[in-house]
Amino acid sequence: MNLQQRINAFAKLGDFLSQFSNEKIQKKDDILFNDLFFDGFKHQLKLAREHNGWFNQDNLVFALDGWSKSLTTNNITHWLNTYSFNNVTSKKVAIIMAGNIPLVGFHDFLSVLISGHDVVVKQSSNDKHLLPFLAKYLEHVEPEFKGKITFIEDKLKDFDAVIATGSDNTARYFEYYFKNKPSIIRKNRNSVAVLTGKETTEDLEALADDIFRYYGLGCRNVSKLYVPEGYDFQDFFQAMYKWKDVINDHKYANNYDYNKAVYLMSEFDMLENGFLMIKEDQSFSSPIATIFYEYYNDVNTLKNDLFSKKSDIQCVVSKGIIDYEIVFGNTQSPNLWNYADNVDTVDFLLKI
């Protein structure tokens, strides 16, 4: 199987996913193997919702829409243009996936297969219904993928390299366990936003998407704000109002109530609007329904501080502040070439 065959197969998968990328799931006439897979994938989405209360319809559809837009022939070709695939010897690459948001491990899965390797997937129990089904679709579109994709639930064995994602604690275990294998080990990361007080209503409403999408569970979700001394949070809270209905989700509401009670009993200073709390805190990782904030006096000092903490930060959202910033509202829509932790997965895979 050559590179173009692999690209074509994933582009066909993107076409298939486009049927599920809006609230009204609609079957199309021109999708390959649709009679075999359309109803089955609808059922898998139902199972995913029932198994994991954080995977509501809106978040599932958002994730699938992102992948359907990314998996086009032009997009994949553009992504891979800078690499050479001429001397790839197929290896067996294990992936240990997280399960915090739907299909969070798909980029690693795609990278391994598109590079010409075999993949061994150990999924999170929180997100186990979607990817095996999509893998079967890939095998029908391109039969040469058969035998190159394996899902396991037991201990990993017989692999040449590994990509593992987990908490800081599990990362230490991974680093020890996989010390004799080529590896990418991903730890906890969070995303931050730098505000100046000059943001428009549109900027702040877009920031609300960066905060609330996936209930804030992703590493690309903004969990910390940097604001200038004397910042007035009134406009910020007004912009967050577009996500007010999030409190109607019982899992989110339970977290909101619990964390609010903890803050009140501990007599922490915090502001809240009925569905979001903000608390001054130097940490990056805030609880669900909470955003931490920290004041700054000088932009250049802040830029140096953020640069020194790059290993803890996934995304920096700002407007004309930092050269590697992400535009408001775009954290959950990365391109194929925007690698997690800024570690080039394909380059790693081509060198193992």
Automatic annotation (TrEMBL):
A single BP term in Gene Ontology: bioluminescence
Keywords for this protein: NADP
Entries under Pfam families matching the protein: LuxC
Annotated TM spans: none
Organism superkingdom: Bacteria
Classification via InterPro entries: Ald_DH/histidinol_DH, CoA_reduct_LuxC
Record's signal peptide: none
GO molecular function, one term: acyl-CoA dehydrogenase activity
Record's protein name: Acyl-CoA reductase
Source organism of this protein record: Formosa algae
